[in-house]
Amino acid sequence: MAPLTVLMSCSIIEKDCNGDILWTWTYPAVSESQKCIITRKCNVQTEFSSVQSFVCSRHKDNWFYINCSEVFDTDKLPRIKQFALVLFTKDFNPEKYEVLCRILSKMYCKTGNTTEILKLYLSVYINGTCTTQENGIFLSDDFDGERLKNVDGSYIRGLIKTFELETILIYTALLLKKRIIIYHHSLEQLLKWIKTIPTLMTHRRITDTLFPWVDLVSEEIADLKNNLHYVAGCMDSAISKKVDLYDLLVNIPAREITIAPHAKDSFTMTKTHKEIALFIVQLCDNNLTTEPQIISEIAEKTQELLNQLKTLTTIRDNDNSDKIKFCIKKLRECKLSPAVESFLINLAVAENLIM
């Protein structure tokens, strides 16, 4: 069993019966900026009547997971109405950390003792596992490192059914590494949809530039702007006016996709786009295909496109026969339409064929 050294910290934030919120315990430490973003996210949650029990997002290059729990009379937490257990980690794995958060939270409810939480946390950090009477054995190795290969919780059919042929716009934005904003006023729905988007492009590590929940505050906007491309979720409808932050805006409740004026040339539809769009919709219309099959078929279609790109645009390097390089002359000899040629050049850039 491998140690889970990507764990960075564990914290507990309590809300007492008077409504006061206190950051009561942390191991080993959190920075002021980490504390600030967690406090803000918790405050945003309390503004709504229904608190989402588990949420995740990122702060700079790290991930945080917040598990909120109601406290009952049978729990050993007198005068506490609610608490949030917060994990900071170096990796994105919501399924794993939701399980771990719940185990730690249940132990805190049962004992009211942060020493017991520390024991479990250190056990997972050092050994990759912990054991509790109520929850049995937690094994970090049970969860793959690359969670996008596992489509638990994916809603790809729902995504395609919602946008039909316009799904190709999301696909193209991912393919060409554009800046994508997903909007939904419901945090629960936003996190569901944001987790589904990367399944359209499984050959890439979309999680490297995934921001599930972004508030329109200067610090979080600055984090976004440090990336050339990203997929970011937002609950604030004012995001639609921040055209400098996106190339493509996906408004889930309105079922609308908006292309920013400065990015329209990148979304010129060619015959290739139309074929892929039709393929995706027809694939989804077949009720016998499962979510994993839909994702796999789209991935195969993408790979066909990438293979075609390399055939049309690359040659062997004279100095290194194992290396291929982009050749604009070879592409021009194909005498493709300007729109197709431009698309293939942009795709070559996105695939790092043009250095």
Tally the beta strands: 14
CATH superfamily of the largest domain: DENN domain, C-terminal lobe
How many structural domains in the coordinates?
A: 2
Strand content: 15-25%
Strand order of the largest sheet: 2-1-5-4-3
Low-confidence parts, pLDDT < 50 over ≥5 residues? 146-150
Percentage of residues in helical conformation: 25-40%
CATH top level label of the largest domain:
Alpha Beta
The ordered H/E elements are EEHEEEHHEEHHEHEHEEEHHEEHH
Radius of gyration: 23 Å
CATH topology of the largest domain: Rossmann fold
Q: Architecture of the largest domain in CATH?
A: 3-Layer(aba) Sandwich
How is the biggest beta sheet arranged? 5 strands, antiparallel
Query: What is the structural class?
Result: alpha+beta
Shape: elongated
Distance between the termini: 40 Å
Protein name: UDENN domain-containing protein
Subcellular location: Late endosome
Pfam families: SPA
Keywords: Endosome, Guanine-nucleotide releasing factor
What is the element layout, followed by pairings?
Blueprint: E1 7-16, E2 21-27, H1 32-46, E3 54-59, E4 62-70, E5 80-89, H2 94-111, H3 114-127, E6 129-132, E7 136-139, H4 156-163, H5 167-175, E8 179-183, H6 187-196, E9 210-214, H7 218-225, E10 230-234, E11 248-251, E12 256-259, H8 271-285, H9 291-313, E13 314-316, E14 324-326, H10 328-333, H11 338-350
Parallel strand pairs: 8-10, 8-11, 9-10
Antiparallel strand pairs: 1-2, 1-5, 3-4, 4-5, 6-7, 11-12, 13-14
Helix pairs in contact: 2-3, 8-9
